[in-house]
Amino acid sequence: MAQFFSRFRSVGMRRSTLRSMLQMDASLLSDMGLTKYDISEALRQGGSAAGDFLDARRNARASEWLR
Question: Can you tell which superkingdom this protein's organism belongs to (predicted)?
Answer without folding.
Answer: Bacteria
